[in-house]
């Protein structure tokens, strides 16, 4: 693979340009959950970038957002670079939408201004999730062009703008295009997750699913003064806190009857996969930012991230949350939580158990308030065969770029489209992450290290060469 050397050299030469590209992308606040800052502009910007590199692009409209019909779903970008019938067709997926972010959440810098510190940490919303990795594919095309090295595959691109919000509309598009736009796909590669630590890359062959729920409790006709009405009214927030605290205990144990019975037992063979993973409790402490792990050994910590379900409480809409001491009784509150699911938990089975549990808990309160249970969005877990040449190729690329064998991991987060591609296209799906465990995706001060971005761009390009060598078109 000597032609990788000029490619790597060009990635190094072009690094300032690639960082500017990321800066421009981060500056577009493409927040899929906010009406005012929808990701459409970002989709158009990305389309122009791909066209400028010589690719072809369509922005597919996905209709209206279910439940919020005044909003168009952000378009899904379907792109292509190269159409040589003798080359392997590699489908790459990523998302150009991001989680919400405001400086007042606790960011040290403006979330939509890429800010680089002396350690080469590039802070900005979407830097690691998932704008940096998406741009990695574009950077790889450009560095090939500048190096005069032919891209060894046809690159088929699917970049969506709704991943952080349940990938609404995407499954239908993929099903409709499985035998059209995606017809010739040979393998799938997704860069949208993270290494376990900060030094060693990994290949990921599974994700947890995510069932996201909301509990709505309303009662008084409007917000009330707690001095005037405290003690005389059923308070929605009190009801909600009681129900939310019945879902999970402080050690992370899910308290909903029947959930644990849905989890496939960990076989001896599976248990043996965890000890060799290069991960330490110090890595965990570093990524948590403090010594707050529930678990005292790495195997337990890894299993509870990759292989067991978890339930997290996310927030309460309508609650008083700003600094100060407002003595209000909120009239309506919406509590939000999600369950990360694993084999063999089925989405509907989990939802039935959750609904039964929260209804029983509310009934116990004998409250005169009104209670509504909502399913916000659900995506299923996915597990792939890591003994496929797609993974062999990625492992070789990691060794070439980083000089180590990758860890084999399952991701605790969720990427619902993995399963859709596996089922609809019947092709092997690989997760090849760029970012590290300390990137703080979804949180304040999200960042991507310059090293991960630049070496990660080399990795994505190298993977294309190795996969072209491992798999021949039939
Ligand atoms: C792992 C991926 N980068 C990611 O962040 N996925 C999200 C998907 C999601 C599910 N509900 C809302 N967003 C995640 O795991 O939270
Ligand atoms: Zn992501
Ligand atoms: Zn995300």
From TrEMBL:
Active site: 97, 163 (proton acceptor)
Molecular function per GO: metal ion binding; metallodipeptidase activity
GO biological process: proteolysis
Residue sites binding Mn(2+) 2 per the record: 95, 129, 192
Domain Peptidase M20 dimerisation: 215-363
InterPro entries reported in the protein's UniProt record: ArgE/DapE_CS, CNDP/DUG1, Cyt/Met_Dipeptidase, Peptidase_M20, Peptidase_M20_dimer
Residues binding substrate, per UniProt: 192, 225, 327, 340, 414, 442
Recorded superkingdom: Eukaryota
Named cofactor requirement(s): Mn(2+)
Family: Belongs to the peptidase M20A family.
Protein name (record): Beta-Ala-His dipeptidase
Source organism of this protein record: Westerdykella ornata
